[in-house]
C-alpha cells in the first residue's frame, strides 16, 4: 500500500521504516531539512537499536523515501499518518499545535481519491473529530485560494495509538500485544487491517501456531482513551510497587521478593513491578498529566492518577534522601551517577530522574559527576549543566563519596567494581534500580543501599 508518515520522531520514523520493511511504499515527511538530509543518507536522528540498519535496508530497496515536501507525501499516500509531537504544556495539557498544522496542511493538499488519515500521535480525547474539522477547514482555504469547484475528496479519520517502547521500538512494532483502531468508518478500519497484515510478524509468519495479534476495533474516543489508560495504568503500577517498596524499607521486608510473590498472581502479572527511583520519559509523565487534565475539564477529580504522580515525585528524590542518610552533610561531597537517560538503550533525557537529582545535589552543595554509555559519547553531554560528564566509569569514580545507579544499563552489571572502589573516596553505592549484585559488591567492601530492601 502507499503510505505517507508525517513527522519523523520516535513514533513516525519507526512506523515508517517498519511499514516499508513489511513491503509498503512509504514516504516520510518532516519539515526539518537537516533531519531529512540525514535520513536520506540512512542515518537515524535518534538512537534506537536496529533503526539505522532498517533505514539503510529500506532505502536500498526503494520502499522508503524522505522528504520535506508535504504536498508530495499527501499525493502519494492512500494512508496518511500524523505522527508529530504533542509535548506537554506547563498546565499538563498536550500541545496540539503541530497536529493542527499538519491536519491543515493535509487539507491544503488533498486531491482526488479516498484517503485514510491516521492519528498516531497521542492526542487528547476527542481529537479525531477535531482533526476531521481542521482538514476540512484546510480544504476550504485551498478552494478559496484557487477558486473553482471543490475536488471530490473523501477521507476518514482513524485513531491508531502506538504502544512502542523506546529501546525496543522495532521489536514492539513487529510484535505488538494488540492493534487498536478507532473510527466510525468500516472502510477505513478494513484498510488499516490490510496495512497491518504484513507488518505484524505473527499473522504472516510461517509459525501458524502463534495466535494472531488481536485487533481492537472501536470508536475514535475509545481508541484515544486506550492509549492514555494503558500508560496511566502502567505508571500507577510502578508507583504502587514503589510505595510498597518504601513500606518494605521501614518494616524490613524485601521488595524484590514481594514483587515476585505478587507478580506470580496472574491477575497482577510480574511486569512493571520493578521498584526504583521512579518513572520518566516522554510518555508516562505527559500522558498521566494529560488524563488528569482531561478529567478536570469534565469536573472529575482523578485522585488515583494524582496520587500516582505524587508518589513518583517523591520517589525521584529517594536517592537524595538515602545519600543524606548515609553521608549526612552533602555539601562538598562528590557524587557519581551511573546512567543519565530515563531508561537504558535510549538517548532520551526527557523527564529523566537524573535531572532532578543533579539539580538537588547541586542545591545542597555536592559536586556531581556522571557516566552514561550513550550520553558520555554524544553531543547531549554539552546540554547538561551542574554535572561533569566523564568518558569512562573508572575516571568518573575518582574521588567520589558515593555512586548512584540511576539507569539500569546492562553495561553496569559487568563494570570492574573492585577497580572502581580503589578510585573512590568512600565506597558507598545507592542502587536506584535494585539492579546490581548486592553480595558481590559487599564482598568488595561496598556499603550497598537498594530501594525497598
Ligand atoms: C512507555 C510505554 O511502555 C509504551 O507502551 C508507550 O507507548 C510509551 O511509554 P517508554 O516511555 O519507552 O514506553 O518506557 P518504559 O519502558 O515503559 O519505561 C517507562 C519508565 O518506567 C522508565 O522510566 C522506567 O525506568 C520505569 N519503570 C519501568 C520502572 O521504574 N519500573 C518498571 O518495572 C518498569
Automatic annotation (TrEMBL):
NAD(+) binds at residues 30, 35, 86, 122, 166, 286, 350. Its EC number is 1.1.1.22. Substrate binds at residues 163-166, 227, 272-276, 280, 343. It holds the Pfam family UDPG_MGDP_dh_N. SUPFAM superfamilies: 6-phosphogluconate dehydrogenase C-terminal domain-like, NAD(P)-binding Rossmann-fold domains, UDP-glucose/GDP-mannose dehydrogenase C-terminal domain. One of its GO terms (biological process) is UDP-glucuronate biosynthetic process. InterPro entries: 6-PGluconate_DH-like_C_sf (IPR008927), NAD(P)-bd_dom_sf (IPR036291), UDP-Glc/GDP-Man (IPR017476), UDP-Glc/GDP-Man_DH_C (IPR014027), UDP-Glc/GDP-Man_DH_C_sf (IPR036220), UDP-Glc/GDP-Man_DH_dimer (IPR014026), UDP-Glc/GDP-Man_DH_N (IPR001732), UDPglc_DH_bac (IPR028357). It catalyses: UDP-alpha-D-glucose + 2 NAD(+) + H2O = UDP-alpha-D-glucuronate + 2 NADH + 3 H(+). Pathway: Nucleotide-sugar biosynthesis; UDP-alpha-D-glucuronate biosynthesis; UDP-alpha-D-glucuronate from UDP-alpha-D-glucose: step 1/1. SMART domains: UDPG_MGDP_dh_C (SM00984). The active site is at 283 (nucleophile). It is an enzyme of class 1 (oxidoreductase). Residues 336-438 form the UDP-glucose/GDP-mannose dehydrogenase C-terminal domain. Keywords: NAD, Oxidoreductase. PANTHER family: UDP-GLUCOSE 6-DEHYDROGENASE TUAD (PTHR43750:SF3). Belongs to the UDP-glucose/GDP-mannose dehydrogenase family. This is UDP-glucose 6-dehydrogenase. It comes from Prochlorothrix hollandica PCC 9006 = CALU 1027.
